[in-house]
Amino acid sequence: MAGRQRFTCRARRTRATSQGEPSVTGGFGGEPTTPFVGFFKLFINPFGDFLFMFGLFGIGIAMILGAGVRIAAVSGTLLMIFMYMAEWPFFVQRNTNPFVDSHWHEALLLLIAAVTLAGDTWGLGKWWGGLDVVKKNKWLR
Q1: Which residues pair with 107 in a beta bridge?
Q2: What is the pLDDT of residues 31-52, one digit of tens each?
Q3: What is the mean pLDDT of residues 70-88?
Q4: What is the Cα–Cα distance from 138 to 129, expressed in whole angstroms?
C-alpha cells in the first residue's frame, strides 16, 4: 500500500488565487487573457465564487425539476456567454475552434429545453404552470 497514491475529490479547474485560497472563478482557465479582463477580475473573490456557484445551483435545480425552465434557460445562457467571454477563444492558443465551443452548445440545449417546455414531460412543469402566479407571469414558466 505504500506505493499507492491517495486521490482527493477536488475539482480540476479549481486553482489558488493570488492570496493562496482556492477559487472556482479564479481558476477558470487560469488568468483571464481576454479583452474583458478588467470586468472578470471583479469576480475573482470569495463573493464571486458564491454568486457563480449559487447561480449554477439554481439553474441546475430548475432544469432537473422542470419548473422555472424559461428563466433558468435565459440565465444559464447568459452565464454561458460570460464563460465564453472569460475564455475568449481568439486569445487561447490550445483552442481548436475559435467560433463554436461547448459553451454555445450548452446554451443552445438550455434554450431548446425552454422552448419545447421539456419540464412538462419529465418534471414538475405542468404543476408549476398551473400555479396562479405562473399563469399571470409567463416568464416564470
Answers
A1: none
A2: 556 778 888 888 888 898 899 9
A3: 90
A4: 8
Alpha carbons within 13 angstroms on the beta-carbon side of residue 79 total 21
Phi, psi of 126 (to 5 degrees): -65, -45
**DSSP-derived secondary structure for 16-77:** E-TTS-EETTTTTTSS--STTHHHHGGG-SHHHHHHHHHHHHHHHHHHHHTSSHHHHHHHHH
Report the length, in residues, of the chain.
141
Residues ≥6 apart with Cβ < 8 Å to 99: 89
Whether 75 shows a pLDDT value over 60: the answer reads yes
Maximum separation of any 2 CA atoms in the chain, in Å: 64
- Which residues have a Cβ under 8 Å from the Cβ of 117 and sit 6 or more positions away? 69, 125, 129, 141
Nearest of 94, 90, 56, 93 to residue 75 by alpha carbon = 56
Residue type, 17: T
pTM to 2 decimals?
0.72
C-alpha cell at 96: 481548436
